[in-house]
Design brief:
The structure is a homodimer.
Chain A (H helix, E strand, L loop, with lengths): L4 H17 L3 H9 L4 H9 L8 H8 L3 H13 L3 E5 L7 E5 L1 H15 L10 H20 L1
The structure holds a DNA duplex (23 and 23 nucleotides).
Chain lengths: ~140, ~140
DNA sequence: TATTGTTATACTCTATAACTATA
DNA sequence: TATAGTTATAGAGTATAACAATA
């Protein structure tokens, strides 16, 4: 008896989840290294240098209340990682841009988060390439859907 | 010029992280469906039926303070999903066991969490099997390390 | 006296509601 | 009057410290 594709997919997905679960402390760890809360790390890394957003847009993107965006951005501003920039066309709107220090911190944090587990090196280069290709394909499909 | 293995591994890991990122809302969603906080869901699914632990052991496992374990277990007990069982050998120690309702809830929640994204079906069965095999290998290596 | 777990309390994170400034 | 963001405030979640019961 052969498995149906959905069951094979379920096995594969379960392996992804279980692997992530075993690494879930990493995020908290990185936040502590930088003296930030996990929420502030999440905020900092989602501030894209080439696509500065306004407070309101951040609230939607982060799926939280506008008042909480104020709270998060306040701390990032205190840390010198971001600053509010009133928009030219409408002075109510404030765009959040990363400072040079913020850019540096953000990319250092991303490096730490993307740091692969040692165990990944047990795979061959061919297996690693196949893995990347497969998961990228899935993510692109997910983004479309 | 060919890439070094560590760089290929970094690409692979990044693809895992990015994929998970795109699904991070799922956990919160499931928690809401069950009228639980994410913390309580995390607690419930980590209570293994075949390996009941005491409060103190849960505090280490969950990397939180003992007083917070009290808080979490209180809610699970109120919901009827778990109960405290004073240990025979030392009546200070309380072992937390899942009730029948807790067992049912736990496995239903796990089913929801393990539910694969539609997009995974874009991969062939062979690709899915390779994915599972590779990630399982990594996780086993990580557990050893 | 030392240890397991709880209670009292305070601090952090997050949301809701009232407010200010601009449009 | 409506909208962008902030301030005041209250509710969860989490920790620290003092405590009770048992060892």
């Amino acid at each position: 008896m052969t498995k149906r594709k959905v069951d094979v997919a379920a096995d594969a997905w379960r392996s992804v989840i279980d692997l992530m679960q075993s690494r879930k402390h990493r995020f908290l760890e990185v936040a502590q290294e930088w003296g930030l809360t996990p929420g502030h790390v999440q905020a900092l890394i989602s501030l894209e240098p080439e696509n500065a957003l306004a407070m309101g847009a951040l609230a939607s993107s982060w799926k939280c209340d506008a008042s909480h965006v104020t709270f998060l951005v306040d701390r990032l501003e205190e840390k010198g990682y971001a600053k509010r920039q009133p928009a030219k066309h409408d002075r109510r709107v404030k765009t959040i841009v990363l400072t040079p220090a913020g850019l540096t911190a953000r990319s250092a944090i991303l490096d730490r988060l993307y740091e692969p587990p040692e165990a990944l090196l047990e795979l061959s280069v061919a297996e690693l390439e196949a893995l990347t290709e497969a998961l990228t394909k899935v993510r692109l499909a997910a983004d479309r859907g």
